[in-house]
Amino acid sequence: MTHVVLLSGPDQSPLPGLDGLERKARLTLATDETSLRQSLPEADILLVTDFRTDLLERAWPDQPKLKWVHAASAGVDRLCFPALRDSDIVLTNARGNFERGIAEYVLGAVLMFAKDTLTNLHLQRSRSWQHRDTETLVGKRVLVVGAGAIGAEVARVLGAMGMRVTGVARSPRVQPPFARVVGQDQLLEQLPQADYVVVTAPLTPRTRGLFDRHAFRAMAPHARFINVGRGPIVVTEDLLHSLQSGEIAGAALDVFDPEPLPPEHPLWTLPNVMISAHMAGDLVGWERRLGEQFMANFARFERGESLLNVVDKSSGFITNGR
């Protein structure tokens, strides 16, 4: 019988949506290094819902029997440590569960900036009546850094609002709904033209630290920065300086480096910043959908069929679709 190990945090509830798995496989729950070390050497499949990278890397067996690792997340950067990355083990992710939620989050952030909602809330708390003009979205220019499934859904939603959306990918290509997609080597050239810069890219060696002081200085002073990708894509102290100095006009941040954002960090108190707790894609029912997605791929595994959402472990990008 196929042996499935579920790596879950000690405080996490069991992943819903795995109905019937215990009848089809031997299922072992691992919540700490000891239980993971005991169960992993004989496992065929590893389902990861807890992304404590050092734990999995420390417990990794010398000669794993694993055939498949599934990440119940869109990002797989925390799983691509050398032993797994350089192996023949198939890695899949949860593409298809987060695109719409993240796109709606980005639209909400854009509307928040355009309609000056942060100021409205501040004035409401102080009971201060101040009439102001606000902006429209029509014709505004958006640069979406990351032209994968999430970035494309962001482009579709913002494009429907009359915004002009350019994508940034590893290389240029024609890809509706983007007006165009340019290569990452053109990032600094494109940044000054954008009213909004949205990061949806995965964390890879090429994107780590991509947004540093040079990138923020290239942005227009009126531009707003939205990060729904990964925290380490941004050099946090450079972003903080740009916001405090007025180099950029504001930021909406769902991911951070470090994460969680420490309570004493200055980003919490900046008036032009919205902070959320890595939740942009988590729509009601998302955990059950993750479980059901794994079960659908598990059925393919049992039938000997190709798995969906296979990730190129060297780049962090999907090699096949849903």
Automatic annotation (TrEMBL):
The keyword Repeat does not apply. Residues 30-311 form the D-isomer specific 2-hydroxyacid dehydrogenase catalytic domain. CDD domains: 2-Hacid_dh_1. Signal peptide: none annotated. Residues 108-280 form the D-isomer specific 2-hydroxyacid dehydrogenase NAD-binding domain. It comes from the Bacteria. Pfam families: 2-Hacid_dh, 2-Hacid_dh_C. Keywords: NAD, Oxidoreductase. Belongs to the D-isomer specific 2-hydroxyacid dehydrogenase family. This is D-2-hydroxyacid dehydrogenase. It comes from Zobellella aerophila. The lineage of its organism: Bacteria, Pseudomonadati, Pseudomonadota, Gammaproteobacteria, Aeromonadales.
